[in-house]
C-alpha cells in the first residue's frame, strides 16, 4: 500500500511541477547534505563578491517527528485522487494507517533529518 501512495504522490508532484530543481530534502539523489553544500557554495560566492549575507537557520525536524500519523494519513487520503483510492482501497488505506508502524533503522536515521535537533 505504501508504494501505491508513493507512486500517486510522485506522479502528482511531477505533473504539477511542485518540486523545484533546487529542492534537496525528500528527493531522489539529493539530501540535506547536498543542500548544505549548495547553500554554502552560494553564500561564500556572495561574500567573496562583497555582498551582504544574512542567514537564518530553522530546524523543523522535531515538528516532523511530532505530527500524528493519523493526521498525516487523513490529509493524504483527502488530497489523493479519489479514483485511485476509491471504495475498498480507501478502507484498506485507513486500516493500514491504523495498524501499520514505520521504523527507521538507527544507521539510516540521519538521512531523514537535516543536521541538528
Automatic annotation (TrEMBL):
Residues 108-117 have a biased composition (Acidic residues). Residues 89-117 are annotated as: Disordered. This is Reverse transcriptase domain-containing protein.
